[in-house]
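Hi V.,

You were right to ask for the full record rather than a summary. Here it is.
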Amino acid sequence: MRSSQSHACYKEDIQPDENHPAILSQTEPLTLFVLADLGGGEVEPIYGLRRFRVKALPGHSIAAGERVPCVAMYESSKTHLQQFLYYRLHPYCWATSRPEHIEAWTSAIPEMEWNLLEASMAAYPDLEDGEIIELRVDGTPIGRRYYREDILNKAIKRKNKHILQETPA
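Predicted structure:
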C-alpha cells in the first residue's frame, strides 16, 4: 500500500506486497527493526531497513524476537523517481485487536523477508533512528541514508571526527 494518508493506511483486503516484516529487538524502550520495499514495485525490490521506537504493541508478546506485521506509508523521492525516500511504520495491531488478523498478516509475509530482516538486524545493530540501510534482495548493502537533518548532521560530525583521527599530524 503506497499511501501517504493515514486513514487509508489499513484495510481488510491487504495484498501480499503490502505486508512488511518487523521484529521487536528490545523491550525498553519498545524498538522494532523493519524492512519495506523502497522500489515502489516498479523495479527489483530495494529494501529499506529502519529502526522504530513505538509506545505499544497490543496483542503481541513483549519479547525480543516477536514478529510484528506492519503496513508502511511512503514519502516519494524527488530525485530517484523509481524509489521512495523513506517510510513510516504502522503495525497492524494498532488497527485491530483480532489475533486471527495479526496471525494471517504475519504468515502472509514471505519467510525470505523475515530471514533477511533477522540477518540485517545482526549486521546493523548500530542502526540509529533516522537512518535507512538500503539492501538488495540478497542482503547486499547498497547504501545508508539519513532522512532527518539532526541525524544527518550527527553522522557528518562522526565521520569528520573519524577522518581527523586518521589524519597524520
